[in-house]
Amino acid sequence: MVSLPEPDRAVLARRPEILRALRSIAPPQSLIDDALQLAAYETDALTAYRQKPLAVVLPRTVEQVSDLLRFAHREGLSIVARGAGTSLSGGAIPVADAIVIGLGMFNRILAVDYENRCVVAQSGVPNLAITHAVAGAGFYYAPDPSSQIACTIGGNVAENSGGVHCLKYGLTTNNVLGAQLVLPDGEIVHLGGKHLDAGHYDLLGLLTGSEGLLGIVTEVTVRILRRPPSARALLIGFPTTEGAGACVAGVIAAGIVPAGMEMMDRPAIQAAEAFVHVGYPLEAEALLIVELDGSAAEVDFLLGRVGELARAHGASSCRTSSSEAERLAFWAGRKAAFPAVGRLSPDYYCMDGTIPRRELPRVLRAIYQMSERYGLRVANVFHAGDGNLHPLILYDANRPGELERAEAFGADILKLCVDVGGVLTGEHGVGLEKRDLMTYQFTAVDLEIQHRVKQAFDPEARFNPGKVFPSLHRCAEEGRMHVHSGPRRSEGEPGRSEGGSGRGEGAAGRGDGAAGRGEGGGAERFAHLPRF
Predict the structure, then answer these.
(1) Closest Cα to residue 347, out of 291, 394, 387, 381?
(2) Mean per-residue pLDDT for 366-383?
(3) 164: which residues sit within 8 A by CB, 6+ positions away?
(4) Are 303 and 233 in contact (CB under 8 A)?
(5) Stated pTM of the model
């Protein structure tokens, strides 16, 4: 069981005074302090944990956000930023003495620039709304998380979200050009712009995947792409998960980069088919959905090549989409896999580890063995093309001990991901859920460097407290810390991943701080940071 930091009793005692001050900063209707209304903000998609915050404020302008953060900085108050609350790692769960800054009112698309192929959107705009805004002109925004109807672009930046098409087109970090950020002291800075790379520190890369630890994103500039002339998908059934995993490796080894390549095991196949009725092969032990896009001639050729590779790896069925409606239907089951599995059990625990593709068969076998050992069912849905796993552990929180068993099961899966050369997270972030496993992937030196970077932005550790980093004790010497709680691994132990592989982001996997992208403004503020 994970735990949130103990609240500051002195802050709780000052709540009436703090509420009065908040009413003077933001419009009265934007403040939520009633216990019943606060319940809507006590958790996110990691629903096993919940905690009402001190208050919630829904600002409408960046100036109001700045004023709120200046006040919090002056009073020493903790801040938790919140988008749509779809985080599966507990990234938006507040602490009792924190003010939640909800970005739901930042819901406007500010500019569509086809000449520079980008969109400027406020951080509360839903992911899918960006594509809807430009679809009429033949453009779209590539990252497409399963929650894209609800999840916000600001939340995508916080978690470096991916989706089924990130194999070819990249994650959020590969599609964000600029951001407006309000720092913990209230200063407003602009990172990047409508261009690609520039000089100076890659603060935009550092921000993407930082999980709300460094400031509040209020505006994002993303790149948009032309819709490919043709896109078709293959629905391929396999009698074994090993055959499907080998086919994934074979496709990539052949030099083919599909727009998306997803895999589901038998429990997930059956749940998704019962939910959407799109014709998934129910007799299959594993299912691959492989999408190819490009010119019509290119797509036709690649469909044939992937079909040949699938048959060579023992495919039991292979169906090609014959229309756009059928292509979308193929994806509908995959996109609905999480809610579909939710019909099988009162609760499920969604994991998010990343492994080298070659390890897929081995890791899946181990997960099934763990399932038997823990006495809990599991359905596997994942981004096979880049090894990002999403095992769904089924449990019933009303049965004593099942939540604890599910968490132990999940921890074993993530440790296995690290052991085979992968990382703790691919796109859901570390948050609260994986925080105490950070010492399994990273050494104390690794974590010290990461914490120093956070201190450069947030010296008092007031932003999103209790997330990402294991429990920290700040000593008199700047940057010194003692890490406790969570398993340790020795330096150089076989199987360690320093910096990670595949998709990993945030504190657990992305290589941040490198010179490259640079920023349009504010970079000089961090000129004292060491080059690593």
Answers:
(1) 394
(2) 96
(3) 144, 146, 260, 262, 289, 291, 331, 334, 335, 383
(4) no
(5) 0.88
